[in-house]
Amino acid sequence: MEGLTFQEEGVLPTKQVTLTRGSGNYYWSGNIYQTLQEAQQEAEVLGSGAVAGYIDTYTYGVFSKEKLEGFFQVDKPSTLIEIYDEGQKLILISYNNEVPLVFQGASKGNEIALTQVGSSRVYRGAIGVVNGQNSGLTPYNQVGMEEYLYGVVPCEMGASYPIEALKAQAVVARSIANFQYNRYSSKGYNLVDTTASQVYRGYGAENVITTQAVDETKGELALYNGQVAETVYFSTSGGVTEDAQYTWGNVVPYLIAVSDFLETEPAQTAWTRKITLSEVQACLNAQGVNIGQALGIEIVSRTPAGRVLEMRVIGTNGSKSYKNENIRSFFSSTKEGSLKSRLFSFQTFTIIGGQTAPPASEEEKTDLVIMGASSLGQGSLSDLMLMSARDMVEAPEQLVLLSKEGITLVGGTNDKGSNTSATLGGSIKHNLPATEVQMGDLIIYGQGFGHGVGMSQSGAKGMAKAGYNYREIIEYYYTGVRVGH
């Protein structure tokens, strides 16, 4: 994709073109012309609806819907693409699906050639169409990798994020685009412009800061054992990322759960959902599941990081279990759609990232050393007040102090009550119950947004603000991965 160049075949005398699938029969003279201009001149001489047709590079013919003298019918006319000018006059036929024509706007007044598609989207590179798909013509943008990233990074991460976070986003976006490069090749293109690949909105989405992030990491990739890694990412973890095996069922050594201890400004704050039993019933009906009337939901098990691993919907005539990401999508037929994440409970909970503190004695948890402009003082955490721009409040029982060097917990206890707790390498702790049952209408308390695997964009922002560079951010979220070319 890098360094794309296009061979100019000719110029169409129109400000815009409309492309449609060929309809009816077409006939061809059999004569070959080396330039578009020669074919156009011959078509004008013949008249009677004759039109120039693209066959291959530097190879053109003359086509007609009328059977003119010496013309013969072409095979598979439905694979033809008809190109109309702004006045809806047919000006060109494309008769090659293997080496198709692409279209590029003139660069008048611009340093680069831009092509507008529809009423708003503008793209670098060129625009082509794939024919023969079930839905008809499918437009695509043919563009170099770095220019593609210019239109991806600002859509996936806001330009207001720190530059090191944006550079991390550029590298992981480049890596996943390379990893998934042939995912849609059987359909005639490489990637799609939605979250199924990455959100891409072309030139109109570009921003000078995100473009800088792409340029300053040009060609850099996330590598695991020398191979490009599938660097999936998401918005907000809620305090801890997730293993790929507990999300999609396959073990990926570099996609394992880590503490998201610097996700201090989450794009998605803690959320609450109210879901009625009638909505749960609608979800069952939409999936063709018959277990009678929905009665409630059971959280059967959790991952070590705390996300729901298995959920069971209970009905009057049986139950139905859902696992991994199917848990989120089960709720897609509710008023608010799929759940934002699988880090949820039927009661409030907390996730503490970083190093898990050992039980503190009463003396240890009340001592606090406070540094002033000229001296150090010692006081009690219970006497500490926290001041914001709007008000002043008493300090909570426990403070979490974050820095580039790590995390320190001040105060609090480790009383687990009746809940279970889990740790990952001593770095993640939660107070989520292992199992829960909620009969009747649901109130769901959740944290995070997205599948939870790989890099948390909110966490990357926090790490960048704490002084980490883009390489350190990537190598933290993707275990064993190194940034290189």
From TrEMBL:
Domain of life: Bacteria
Name under which the protein is recorded: Uncharacterized protein
Taxonomic lineage of the native organism: Bacteria, Bacillati, Bacillota, Clostridia, Lachnospirales
